[in-house]
């Protein structure tokens, strides 16, 4: 399968295995490496389109599983598709629903045909198979759709992992046959747990089917960072270099840097938005826990020098107050900062690769990190 | 007491008892009749300064009781005052804290000296008296401060109401003596329940003290609209016509129209923002209950023709989805619409008074109202 007409990937610079490029989609180009914020229920929690653009987001992810159950993919299709429904005219990627079937559904029975599961919302039963997942995503109308995969929890027995790889490859073939929309690219997902041989087998099998893009799935499920990076290293060399490579569900700053170092182009993760709602702000030093009493009278911005709306307008003391008072604005302002932090990081990553100073960038990135709350040195 | 230097009120048009004017404050002029959204904890729930300006808000209210308990008025003062703390450079009015001491505190003992109460947050004990209330509001630094009053729940025995009026007048005198900030106007509050004689006595006594503005308090506590309007009619004639008149805690569209008809200039109310969070959208017909199944596939804006951000960008179907999914954006988008609805109403009210078509405006306002959800006629 060649790239669908509206899509292409152009490599613009490399630094070792790290790469910078542009991924072209029907809703515009994306400079890679790129991060997608998660809009589970057709909304990146608390933010509008204008705020997403202001922090630097150009492509967002939405969850097929959630939208399939509520409000349903047919109503969204009748209302003109997901872009129009959620008022986002940039690229959208929808996952296949597979991950949530495994992580959220109350009960599931997996067979070679597909998955029967009970909704986490109301307990009603649903059937999901590769064709259902393709059909749902074609109705949603995202720019990029994902094949249904089997994502076993880790650790898993070798036989379980091997069967999941077989199913994932077989389901990818079925997905490819079922897929129709020419304005949508279908990406396949590599499984294989932490087993290098299985990772390679899965990657090579999927690469042989000729997808326009590939994802590394089955990670960020509780394994260590070292294991995660080893699995990544066992996968990426077997994926074609002329297609985007997407690491699913990974978004801690160190993980972004290390995955880019190994050749990843695309990321999504709930981390920056979820920790924001829990009062954690991402800063160059690591994190800032806004509820801490030390910020009660702190007039500094969360990250002095940051150009985000939150840092330009509010003090740590005010953000602490909003968080302790459980105000809606707390989640919103923290989310804006955290996403802006991630997008400034991605921008610096792309620049470092393009300017051939990737190694120095990594050194500086780690030199600033302490893991603890930043002090008052600046104030 | 004359107007503090930075303040003045200019009457620009009348229509019967209804009046239009401009209230000048250190943070800018306010065209009246005006509505203030409630920013209880130094934030109008979910919205930023830019969104408040976009919906038409020019003056906001914050609650002294809440801010006194958390984060405290001293930290806010040290951080440069309430305007800077919450990033609002328009006028602010703070209430005295009296109403919340009566409605929220776990226990309270009222004497002629003041009120001892237990925090609704953590049960700790506080003392509040007219001087404390003035001091707290001077630290917050709002443009308009309110005197501490006694607000008895209705119905109340005549002796209770009479004692509350005596205390309220005495406390207003003490407040006036305690008040220092020249860049802050102190308004007095008329009590008296539903008793016309007490209302008149309280209004005349306070008017004799020469405040720069007067509020009608003790209403919107469960009484009928007819009783509310009767109490208003028993109060307003005894307040000086050259000072702003503020009706506290009232904000249903009909109440706004009827209070303006009787000569009120200023309003605050949680209604538009609170019902927004509960999924009720204000529309010319009355209200739209967004969770209703009839909106599941409705591609119309909440109020077709409305110029607010929500109506320009989103369908009823999407807003229904956000509400059912309990998404933060639901509260925010609904709040934007409801406040914009109120501000378009206030703007039309001012125009109607200025253009001498107030009577016709009221007729048209009531002709469109049905109280029920709008139908699909437009779609």
Notes on the structure:
Two copies of one chain form a homodimer. With 379 residues, chain A is of the alpha/beta class. Chain A has 15 helices and 16 strands. Chain A has helices at residues 49-55, 64-69, 73-78, 82-86, 98-103, 130-140, 158-178, 196-209, 225-233, 253-261, 271-277, 309-313, 316-324, 328-354, 358-368; strands at residues 8-15, 18-25, 28-32, 34-37, 60-62, 92-94, 108-110, 115-118, 125-128, 144-146, 185-190, 214-216, 245-247, 266-269, 280-283, 286-289. In chain A, strands 4-14-13-12-11-10-6-5 form an eight-stranded parallel sheet. In chain A, strands 1-2-3 form a three-stranded antiparallel sheet. Chain A is globular. Chain A starts with 7 loop residues before the first strand and ends in an 11-residue tail after the last helix. The mean pLDDT of chain A is 95. The interface between A and B is large, with 37 and 37 residues.
List the main descriptive attributes of the protein structure presented here:
homodimer, 379 residues, alpha/beta, eight-stranded parallel β-sheet, three-stranded antiparallel β-sheet, 16 strands, globular
Summed up:
Two copies of one chain form a homodimer. With 379 residues, the first copy, chain A, is of the alpha/beta class.
Q: Number of DSSP helices of chain A?
A: 15
Largest sheet of chain A: 8 strands, parallel
Oligomer: homodimer
Return Rg of chain A in Å.
20 Å
Pick out the low-confidence regions of chain A. Answer: none
Strand order of the biggest β-sheet of chain A? 4-14-13-12-11-10-6-5
């Amino acid at each position: 399968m060649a790239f669908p007409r509206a899509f292409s990937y152009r490599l613009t610079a490399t630094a070792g295995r790290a790469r910078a490029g542009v991924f072209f989609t029907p809703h515009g180009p994306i400079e890679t490496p790129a991060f997608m914020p998660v809009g589970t229920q057709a909304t990146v929690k608390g933010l509008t389109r204008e705020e997403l653009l202001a922090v630097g987001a150009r492509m967002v992810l939405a969850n097929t599983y959630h939208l399939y159950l509520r409000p349903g993919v047919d109503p969204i299709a009748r209302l003109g598709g997901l872009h129009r429904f959620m008022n986002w005219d940039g690229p959208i990627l929808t996952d296949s629903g597979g991950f949530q079937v495994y992580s959220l559904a109350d009960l599931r029975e997996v067979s070679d045909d597909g998955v029967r599961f009970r909704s986490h919302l109301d307990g009603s039963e649903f059937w999901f198979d590769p064709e259902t997942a393709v059909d749902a995503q074609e109705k949603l109308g995202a720019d990029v759709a994902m094949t249904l995969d089997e994502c076993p929890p880790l650790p898993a027995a070798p036989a379980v992992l091997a069967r999941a790889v077989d199913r994932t490859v077989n389901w990818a073939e079925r997905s490819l046959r079922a897929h129709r929309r020419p304005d949508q690219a279908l990406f396949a997902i590599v499984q294989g747990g932490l087993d290098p041989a299985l990772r390679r087998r899965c990657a090579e099998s999927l690469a042989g089917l000729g997808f326009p893009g590939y994802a590394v799935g089955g990670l960020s499920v509780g394994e260590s960072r070292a294991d995660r990076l080893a699995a990544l290293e066992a996968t990426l060399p077997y994926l074609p270099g002329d297609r985007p490579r997407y690491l699913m569900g990974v978004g801690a700053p160190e993980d972004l840097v290390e995955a880019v170092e190994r050749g990843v182009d695309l990321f999504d993760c709930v981390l920056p938005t979820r920790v924001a709602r829990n009062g954690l702000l991402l800063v160059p030093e690591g994190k800032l826990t806004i509820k801490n009493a030390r910020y009660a009278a702190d007039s500094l911005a969360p990250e002095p020098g940051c150009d985000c709306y939150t840092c330009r307008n509010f003090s740590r003391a005010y953000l602490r107050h909003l968080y302790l008072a459980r105000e809606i604005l707390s989640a919103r302002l923290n989310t804006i900062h955290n996403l802006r932090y991630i997008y400034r990081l991605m921008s610096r990553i792309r620049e470092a690769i393009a300017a051939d100073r990737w190694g120095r960038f990594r050194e500086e990135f780690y030199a600033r990190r302490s893991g603890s709350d930043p002090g008052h040195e600046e104030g």
